[in-house]
Write a structure and sequence with these properties.
The protein has 431 residues and is an alpha/beta fold. The chain contains 19 helices and ten strands. A four-stranded parallel β-sheet has the order 3-4-5-6. Strands 7-8-9-10 form a four-stranded parallel β-sheet, with helices on both faces. The radius of gyration is 22 Å and the shape is globular. The chain starts with a helix and ends with a helix.
Length: 431
Amino acid sequence: MMRLAELLSHADFQVTFVNTDSNHDRIVGNADITSFCNRFPKFHFSSIPDAIPCDPLTSGLTAKDNFRSIKAECKPGFRRLLTSLSEETGQSRRPTCIITDGIMSFATVDIAEELGIPVIAFRTYSASCTWTYFHLSKLIKEGEVPFPDNDMDKPITSVPGFENVRPKDLPGICRVDATDEYVLQFFLGETSTMTRASALILNTCYEIEAPVISRLSSLYTKIYTIGPLDALLKSRIKDPSPSVSSNGILRKEDKSYLTWLDAQPPRWDLYVSFGSLVESGYTESIPTELDQESKERGLIVTWAPQEEVLAHPATGGFLTHSGWNSTLESMVAGVPMICWAQIADEQVNSRCVSEVWKNGFDMKDTCDRSTVEKSVRHLMDNKREEIRESTDAIAKIARDSIKQGGSSYRNLEQLIDDIRSIALMTWVKKP
């Protein structure tokens, strides 16, 4: 979301970036906000209450606790924020449009409709996972969620275009005992509310997910595929100064990795990371045995800039949790993946990596030591050539999409033009 906001600010829009208090505090505490705002004088940071501790890992709260808290706090907070913006700048200067995170629709869509402000949904998952979410109610109606008899390999039939998907390939929220589970119902509600947005933004490349994006067009008349956003931001903004979104928001980066990687042969290193939430909580509690055994053959760091690691010539593979940002970054870098999916969208992404794009392997639900070793050896020795061709092809598609004239580049231009058109129409209608 921050990368999209930076791109829109670069297009000379006045942007108010609204975050929850807990995430806002992390940005303010870890990034040079003053320097950033000097570069983008029309960019403004704001936040609304969420009642979530700044460090959710040590709070003892569950996902259900966090969702309940967000739902109780954010909608009234967002209403107050929009009211204050109107009071500060005058009614004529209220937002031209609202771009909302797809799972914050409850806090934005109703209010946008009340105030007559157009709303665009931005779903940060892949198109494939987004399409799956739109079929949650059908999966429940057809009795495929919860999983009958806990059969994780029986083909799913309720998601058109995904005929070979198994229960184990569905989003993590589908792994429930009953359909009234709070988190499942939360996402059902958010997905339904999201369809009331006038358009959909996806952080993906059209050519990589074209069949699914075509199906999503039955729900939205306008879909802007503008990913990979990390790479698009770099291609559009040539300023060498680091962006807020590329800084280590959660932790200070450990630069020792660079010297170590520089000393390794090409494509020799297997990079292992299970995402910001896991890594930020547990890298300081590495077992002594693992630390000692890896000293001669590897390097453990608390926090590393992932894009730089993946782009390094020494990196030959990525053992990942299959979060969508990590998947996209690996695609752009042309690094094949070993997928160890755990939650949320990761199950869908890992299935696409292994069965659709064929730029990696999926270890889903069978991650014992022998399976991990076999997958690593298969990826890192000469046998990896069987996926190298598809990995390189995907990388070229992703890189071409963000170049001038590429699909993501053009779609961002179209989004910018459409927002300007909304602003013009709003201005014309003023008394």
